[in-house]
Amino acid sequence: MKKRITYLLITYFSKSASREEIVELTELLKDEDNSFIFKSLVRTNYVIDRHMLDFDTEAEKKKILEKIHFNEQSSKRVKRLNFFKYAAVVFILFGLGFFSYNYNTSFVETKQQKVNVVVDANKSHDVLPGSNKAVLTLENGDQLVLGKEKKVALKGVKQEGEKLVYDQLSSKSTIAYNYLTIPKGGQFFVQLSDGSKVWLNSDSKLKYPVKFTKDRPREVELIYGEGYFEVAENSEDFGAHFLVKTKTQTVDVLGTQFNIKAYKEDKNIVTTLVEGKIAIESGGVRKNLRPLDQSTVTADKSGSLTVEKLKYVFDEIAWKQGYFSFKQKSMEDIMVVLSRWYNVEFTFKDVTKRNKTFTGVLDRENTISQILINIKKTNEINFKINEKNVIIE
Q1: Which of 98, 280, 306, 360 could be cross-linked to 374 through a Cys-Cys bond (beta carbons 3.0 to 4.6 Å apart)?
Q2: Phi, psi (5° rounding) for residue 341?
Q3: Which structural domain range is residue 55 located in?
Q4: Could you report the per-residue pLDDT of 86-103, keeping only the tens digit for each?
């Protein structure tokens, strides 16, 4: 039943549902449990795309339930990008691990099949997913290892589970900086002293003050890696502007949510705005971004800046939600992403496989073999896992 509701919701939101499918969905929505799923899906979708900040799910549900006049038949041609977007949202909502979209057909429910992914018979040799872990470097150079079983006791800092929360009432008068370093195979969350929240992806490093100074811009630096920022609005205690610096750009923020990807080996720094408004400065050029805008700044000295409008931002922020999202990504690019999260090395024994592409959403909680099995379902690619090295044949 869950698979059927999943399919009907995707077809409805992507405007590809037939008359019969809308009737079926109408009946299913009379059940309160299914109604709750529908409301959650609507809110999830609008959070992802930020087309609207306030959406009346009851009105949308009523619109379906009261639908009397139907078109005899919806268009048979599914808009591919819309279908992919809503499929991604539904699968995240239901917590499913994988889906793929075949560009020559409609929604594809993948089935378990025998695939050629070779792993040592001893499951301990499979590579587990990353976890919440980091290294906190204090002003005096001391380093503290953070993780599930490791607690820290610092004045003005609370470790709530597997995240750091800095005290807004800290009495520290001088500016002291901390560094939070996330290794490969890790991720971590930190709440800064002004209430701003930062989610850091694998292989990332953030520099920030223990406490922001009143009436001065709040400034942090993403030294390298990837971070999702949810910036608190200014107050009487904190400066209005929030600045995020990277190697060749500065992001000027006024209360917003955005993602920055600035890995050491990347040729470009990519900033994606989810909500609010930011300004990007690089190479003497300043450009304002609106929701769904994505800026690209070259990581070289020129710092060339360009901005484009995205149709949706899910691919850019999926990691924060616990997923990988790939749309026509090359195997080479995908392996770079997987290497950070699983802390493994990939070797292409057959170099022609580098340009093979894959489209799908994968659960970051899966082991490396589970991820590779799902990729294999839509590609003629074989993998061999040898401890921390994955060979692509």
Answers
A1: 98
A2: -75, -40
A3: 2-94
A4: 555 555 444 444 444 433
